[in-house]
Every structure is written in structure tokens, then in C-alpha cells.
Known about the structure:
Layout: H1 2-30, H2 40-55, E1 60-65, H3 67-70, H4 75-82, E2 85-90, H5 97-107, E3 113-116, H6 131-137, H7 150-160, H8 164-169, H9 180-187, H10 235-250, E4 254-257, E5 262-263, H11 273-288, E6 301-302, H12 316-334, H13 344-363
Parallel strand pairs: 1-2, 1-3, 3-4, 5-6
Helix pairs in contact: 4-12, 12-13
Amino acid sequence: xxxxxxxxxxxxxxSSYALLxxxxxxxxITYPLYIPNAAYWLKEGFSIKEHRAKTIDTQKxxxxxxxxxxxxxxxxxxxxKTNQKIVNxxxxxxxxxxxxxxxxxxxxxxxxxxIMPLEYNFYTNEKILEDWVIRILLTWGSEFIKEFSVKQxxxxxxxxxxxxxxxxxxxxxxxxxxxxxxxxxxxxxxNPLAILRRADGGNAYNSFGDKIIDNESKLKLDFSNRYFYxxxxxxxxxxxxxxxxxxxxxxxxxxxxxxxxxxQNPEFDLTQKEHADRLQKLTDKIKEHGLDxxxxxxxxxxxxxxxxxxxxxxxxEGAMLRTLYVADTxxxxxxxxxxxxxxxxxxxKQRKAEAKKMLEKYRKLGYYPE
Length: 370
């Protein structure tokens, strides 16, 4: 009899804790409340890109990745060179891919094309929900939770518990960050035509959602980065992309991969056969999973002079050059032609000269406010 009471007692206690966990977790994800340090700057970026995506009612091309696209594409130039509407959905390389998938599902329409120059760390990262991601999902990004696996959702629920007291205390605080209208009002108050900026920060995005920083490289001459190791590639990452590509195909939306921006250095220089062969093995793995990849790898690997402040960011001149390269790749794809460049050095020389001219053209429009 005594043993049965003990069992009953602990059963009630455990059931109470389980019920408390469930109710608290449901509250946490159903009623998003303020938490400090929830990457509200990223929310502002999403609002700008979402507005552009939903206001284009014709066929469009999405460029989706982390900040290598954010800093390295000039949207108006790309639209001019391809005669296509472009949505630069580059933001942050460590934002979970599930969030990008959710945005594409929401805004891509039949006939659209999604091009993903994903940073190489995507292919090597584990499925880890870091603290800052949990903070996003419990605040302004709660709508994205449903995109995660059941296992991950349970993890999100469990990790939400420590934030409950803080969220209740701050229940009357609104999420920081400007709306699209507020941001544009601030941006256009001085020079609505400008797309260049002299430094990052503040009103960092231009009206197209790009960050084109007209500044010299901040990388050191002796910088070195390998970008990825073949042994670190994760098969489930390729399967994630394949599953998503299949989902989009049913909606008549095409998913294409391409190569992200990289900066030439002793550990990653695609003019060197050893490094080019390593990247070719990654390309082969992508194709083995039934995914399509476009572009010429060498044209994604830029000299140090075109870099800005990190291993995936280009300065304004580099962004013009990258945009011209991407335009040629897109045009070949749209024309159903294989991209072939017989004289690579002459081609690069011509595009570099054109990039300088394009940069001077945009400099004449001035700079948007700091």
C-alpha cells in the first residue's frame, strides 16, 4: 500500500511538471513577447525584403543566402543586365535555412526562380539551435517555428522555459525596429536615388535591400581561410535542399544553387588546381543529390582588393563585378545555354572595366544617409 502511494505521488508530481512544461511552452510560442538581444536588426532587414517580394507581381528571381549576397549584389544593375525583377534575400549566414525556406514559400510564385549562393559553412553546420535563434523564434520570428522538425520544435519548447520570467516582466515592451514605411522614410529623407553607402550600420540597407559599401578592403594582406573541409560536409544538408527543391518544383518554381563569394587567399585560391579540385568534389556531391548548380566557380573567387570587411563580403566595386558575373550566368540559364568562356582573362578584364564604369555611374547619384 505504501509503495503504491509513493508511486502515485511521484506520478502526480511528474504529470504536474509535464503539464506545466506543455502549458508554459505553448504560451511561449503562442504569445511572442519581448526578449533583449533577439537580432531585431534582422527583423528590419526581413521587412524590407518582404515588402519588395510581395510588391512585384511579375516573374522574379530570388537570390537567397547569407550576407555574401547582401553585400555583393547590386539589384538595379542585375535587373538592367537580365531584364528580370530581382529580390535580394541575402541576410545572415547563420540564420537557419528553415527561415529562408519559409520566406520563399510565402512569396515565390509559379514561374519564379530561386538562386541560392549559400555560404560554404551551411554545408558543414550541424542542426544546432543557438541562443540567438531561440530568442528570434520566441519574439518576432514565432511564425517560423512550424518550419522546423518535430524534434527541433520540442527543443525550442524546452529552451523557451528559462525566458518565461523575463518575457513576463517585459510584456509591455514593443519589439524594436522600424517598419518598412518608417525605414524608407528615414532612408529617403535626403537622397532617395542613392544606392551606395560609405560604411555599414544605421540605415544599412538601400531601397532594394542591398548593402553596397563604397570603401576599401578591411581584410589584412596575410588573411587566410580555407572555407570548408570535405570531411565536414553533412549529407542531411544536401537532402534538405533536395526536399525543398522538390517541393518548389511542384509549384512550378525552380531552385538553383550557385557559388558564394569568396576571397582569394593561400588556403582558397581557385586558380590553384588543388583548391579547384576540392570545390569540384563539393559540386559533384551537390549533383549526386539531384540538385542543379549554375555558374563558373572561378568567377566567385575575388581578389583581396574587391573585399570589404570579412571573408564573404565585397566592397562596392566588387559588388558591381559580382553582379555582372551573376548576370551573365543567369542570362545563359534563361537562354538554356551552357556558360562557356573561351578566354577567361580577357572576359574578366572586360567585366572589371565595366564594373568601374557602373560604380562611377552610381557614385554620381550620391550616398544615402549614415
